[in-house]
Amino acid sequence: MTKAAVRKIPAPFRTPLLHRRELWIKAETCQRARSAKYRMVVAKVQRALASGEIASGTILVEVTSGSTGIALAHVGEMLGMPVELHAYRTIASTKRKAIEYRGASLVLHEPDVPVSRLLEEVRKKVADGGYWHLDQYARGSVVLSYEPLGREIVAQLAEAGAPAPKLFLCPVGSGGLIQGVGTVLRKEYPAIRVIAVEPEKGHVIDGARNTELHSLGDDDPYDPRFPDEVVRVPRPKAKITVGSILLGESASAACAVAAARKGGPALVLAPD
Q1: Which one, of 205, 223, 220, lies nearest residue 115 by Cα?
Q2: pLDDT in the model for residue 3
Q3: Which CATH number fits the domain that encloses residue 47?
Q4: pTM, whole model, 2 decimals?
Q5: CA 242 → CA 236, 245, 248, distances in Å?
Q6: Which of 72-76, 174-178, 192-196, 267-271 is predicted with the least confidence, judged by mean pLDDT?
Q7: Is the Cβ–Cβ distance between 172 and 195 less than 8 Å?
Q8: Is 197 in the same domain as 77?
Q9: How many domains in the chain?
């Protein structure tokens, strides 16, 4: 099953690197399943297929706020495998529809149920057999899954003859994206400053979280010591369009922060 299954999963697109004044924007909204999460899902599913963790009839399961669920549902649909996703009732209607359109089973929970409890329920299913957990909260494997994206960005900046970015701004969701890409960028551009963009208290930004208010504690994949700076902002009043590409809320917030800085060329990662 392994080789045939892997061939059914298309490789991630090489998404465009957009240029707007002093901003360079990596538009992962143009990725398959419309987010950077597709890269992580593909990398982890392929590893699990190769190791035999996923077999015929295995149910792919995850706790998700939206984009990861869409990517996993997309891959499950291509493999012809069942997908079970657990999310809060507050999930964006567009993301709920995208998940259900791809045939995944969506189990909705009340917002007052801690994420840690949902993860416990999922891990119990895996322990009982028949399930494979994507586990987007596993720090090491998730960070590793995003390093190829970092190398892709470095190559595109070189091809464009762009100056070395002084700032790297990335919204924080699970936290793997900023850490995986940021690790590569720091090696290539030692002077770069990594800035985490999060919603401020009382605001909700799709695809991002306030890590101070919403943390999994010691099990959280996000290391709050990783960024050089954390900026918490209100929900953007409007999404930003670059050329013909409409960026998501979290990317629009990050672009607004970058535009307000006068520190030279900046790189923004638009996750969805």
Answers
A1: 220
A2: 63
A3: 3.40.50.1100
A4: 0.93
A5: 16, 5, 11
A6: 174-178
A7: no
A8: no
A9: 2
